[in-house]
Write a sequence for this structure.
């Protein structure tokens, strides 16, 4: 699942505190610091300005990817009022954290609902595609190559080669790209995989589309697999351990 991070000013403060704790003597630190530029009167002025540049540059880059976009002018005004101790804040410091969390949660919910609708539309159309078989659970697969070996049982471990994709074609995992097959327990994987593997004779290669409820559901997985994502795999069953 893609998780949204909160941009925390406290991180800067903690960094500064840690830095100060490692400095034996503040006077020594000031005396050995780089001299202040002519536009800044003292070393303290310089380090204060440097903190602003350092934090501001990082924040500017981070906000480029902020979900829903960002208004930098509003951000700067909020920052200025907060650091000045301005009592005329439109949103109080206590309320700000809750507002950010609520905003991100709502945005994530909207994206999850949109992903679910997209997946449902795809599966509804795909079930009538040539060669596609839909199981009672909603799993869809197409036989690319039918092997003549035995089928694995729930308690077995199997060796497979596979490539996993999103519906837009993005490859998020591939044992083929790594050049090494994967050995896994049949029931130690997502539900869609567990069902598929028990349908496949050894030597088979299937293309499969796994509904989100048989994959990672509303939680998603990592940064790539969004909540409610339908996943596509090509799976080749190479063998069953000890059989």
């Amino acid at each position: 699942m893609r998780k949204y991070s909160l941009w925390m000013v406290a991180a800067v403060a903690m960094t500064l505190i840690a830095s100060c704790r490692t400095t034996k003597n503040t006077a020594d630190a000031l005396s050995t610091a780089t001299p202040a530029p002519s536009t800044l009167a003292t070393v303290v002025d310089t380090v204060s300005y440097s903190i602003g540049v350092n934090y501001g540059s990082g924040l500017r880059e981070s906000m480029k990817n902020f979900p829903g976009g960002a208004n930098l002018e509003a951000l700067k005004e909020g920052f200025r009022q907060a650091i000045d101790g301005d009592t005329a804040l439109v949103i109080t410091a206590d309320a700000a954290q809750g507002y950010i969390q609520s905003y991100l949660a709502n945005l994530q919910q909207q994206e999850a609902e949109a992903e679910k609708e997209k997946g449902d539309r795809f599966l509804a159309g795909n079930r009538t595609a040539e060669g596609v078989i839909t199981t009672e659970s909603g799993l869809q697969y197409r036989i690319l190559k039918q092997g003549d070996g035995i089928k694995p049982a729930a308690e077995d471990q199997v060796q497979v080669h596979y490539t996993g994709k999103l519906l837009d074609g993005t490859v998020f995992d591939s044992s083929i790209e790594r050049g090494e097959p994967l050995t896994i327990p049949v029931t130690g994987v997502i539900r869609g995989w567990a069902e598929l593997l028990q349908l496949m004779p050894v030597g088979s290669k299937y293309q499969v589309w796994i509904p989100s409820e048989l994959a990672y559901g509303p939680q998603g997985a990592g940064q790539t697999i969004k909540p409610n994502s339908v996943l596509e795999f090509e799976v080749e069953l190479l063998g069953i351990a000890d059989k």
